[in-house]
Amino acid sequence: MRILLVEDDQMLSNGVNLALTQNGYVVDHVRTGMDADWALVGTDYDLLVLDLGLPEMDGLEVLTRLRERGKATPVLILTARDTLEDRITGLDLGANDYMTKPFHLAEFEARVRALLRKENWGNLTEIRHGDFCFDTSGRRLTVKGEPVELSAREVEVLELLLQRIGKVVNKNQIREHLSSWEEQISFNAIEIIVHRLRKKLEEAGTNIRTIRGLGYLLEMPQN
């Protein structure tokens, strides 16, 4: 899943960025409100982590513009503004959650998981089909109760296919999902990731079908 982190404090942003990437998320990072607004116009993110006291444009203005464009992107405000009025304003303008600094990293990570679970999985903590079970919070797959080792990119592709069961997912969608500004994923790399993931899913009776010229379709076993 792809996250936009908007934070102008270098030390804090480095720590948060590291925590998110270590949990397998793709992260883009900007330091100003103007850059955040530009990024949100050009890319659909799974989550926006937003500071408020930003250079060039205040975070609340970034949030207001996002919602005025009709974007439902989940937003977690992460800020030093800690008054009740600040929290009410942020939530009323369209934020989904509000954390104040300083904060515990473990709680931040849990809130990220909760927001992504609600947005992408309808609050389900597990996706089950026959012997197939995917833990949406821990992002772990088990088959017949046994863990299946997946790379971070394999998890990303599996999540994207699971969220669109019964629909074809094209390579451009996968590339957008896996790429960051620092690293663009090639179509050849996507084919390799899908091939490896397909092999790992066979035991669960799950198939990733290639629809020539269109993309990939996840076929699940019957419950």
Spell out the blueprint of helices and strands.
Blueprint: E1 2-6, H1 10-22, E2 26-30, H2 33-42, E3 47-50, H3 59-68, E4 75-79, H4 84-92, E5 97-100, H5 105-121, E6 126-129, E7 132-135, E8 140-143, E9 146-148, H6 152-163, H7 171-178, H8 187-201, E10 207-211, E11 215-219
Parallel strand pairs: 1-2, 1-3, 3-4, 4-5
Antiparallel strand pairs: 6-7, 7-8, 8-9, 10-11
| CATH H-level superfamily of the largest domain | Response regulator
Please provide the ordered H/E string of secondary-structure elements.
Answer: EHEHEHEHEHEEEEHHHEE
Number of domains: 2
Computed Rg: 18 Å
Q: How much strand content do the residues show?
A: 15-25%
CATH architecture type of the largest domain: 3-Layer(aba) Sandwich
CATH class of the largest domain: Alpha Beta
Total strands: 11
Unreliable parts: none
How would you sum up this structure, described in words?
This protein is α/β, with parallel strands linked by helices and 223 residues long. The chain folds into two domains: 2-121, Rossmann fold (3-Layer(aba) Sandwich); 126-219, Orthogonal Bundle (Arc Repressor Mutant, subunit A). The chain contains eight helices and eleven strands. It has helices spanning 10-22, 33-42, 59-68, 84-92, 105-121, 152-163, 171-178, 187-201; strands spanning 2-6, 26-30, 47-50, 75-79, 97-100, 126-129, 132-135, 140-143, 146-148, 207-211, 215-219. The strands form three sheets. Strands 2-1-3-4-5 form a five-stranded parallel sheet, with helices on both faces. Strands 6-7-8-9 form a four-stranded antiparallel sheet, with no helix packed on it. Strands 10-11 form a two-stranded antiparallel sheet. The radius of gyration is 18 Å and the shape is elongated. It starts with a strand and ends with a strand.
